[in-house]
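Example 3.2
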Amino acid sequence: MRATLKELAQIAQADIQGDPEYVIYGIAGLDKAQAGDICFLATSKFKQFLSASQAGVVILKPEDADEWSGNALLCQNPLVAYAKIANFLSQQLNKPTGIHSTAFVDESAEIDATAYISAMAVIEAQVKIAAGCFIGPGCVVSNGASIATNTYLHANVTIYPYCVVGQNVIIHSGTVIGSDGFGNANDNGVWIKIPQLGRVIIGDDVEIGANTAIDCGAMEDTIIGNGVKIDNLVHIAHNVQIGDHCAIAGCVGIAGSTTLGKHCSIGGVSGVADHIEIGDNIHFTGMAMVTRSISEPGLYSSGIPAESNRQWRRNVVRFRQLDVLEKRIKALESKLKQLEGS
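Structure, written as tokens:
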């Protein structure tokens, strides 16, 4: 890794304090950084480490510049600036190219010369893998699937037939793209499998966490938009459509044929019912249960926060009494109207 402060300022769209030609070789935390390292200060919580830091460059908010006499990049969001810089510097790391001797690659597959196929990976017929891709150990890319430029598959990722993965995508270990959706027809108590004939199409700049499953469409495609970020252990069912730049936290389940708009977020352990539509800029806190379509942007919550067992038991009793209480209130309202009328 190597870059001048001037180069990094352009990438982060930040102002320079200090020497524009100062060279950065590494990344470190504020309290561990040495000369040649870049770090950032995003919150006042870590400001105690600033004065003693040995960092070569610190990314700061302009209002904190007076507290640091060394080289700095000044911007309103140091965390975002750091993310852009870290991505740039990590891309400079040497990537292997070619095909490992233990990998299987079908002769009809198209593998760019700058891609790398790791040990024990399987690349089936008619697969297309573009420039700069990394296919990790034990991955399976099935018939007719395509993977665009600079996409990185960690170990043991499975891509089912004819799925499409965009460029600059990261898919973590154990994830399965294109497995069959849960489609069955009931014939007098016996379940008959409905063939799942669609694909999964993943846009550009997507990241998918470990052990996540995204099902193929039943007839049409399951679609993951550009810039979507999906955590570990998420299940996205068949024919779901996720809009651009959504974020989905761990252990979320989204049932079939549901549409999620752009710039939405879903907190961990939430569940989203099937065949509903969620509009743009809608956010759900953790453990939400979404059972109906929502179009109004905003923050939505459900679920019951943890409390003492004694209080929880009392609340359960009250909950079971709600129907009785409603009937009593209606009876009292009726009597009150009679009294008012008389």
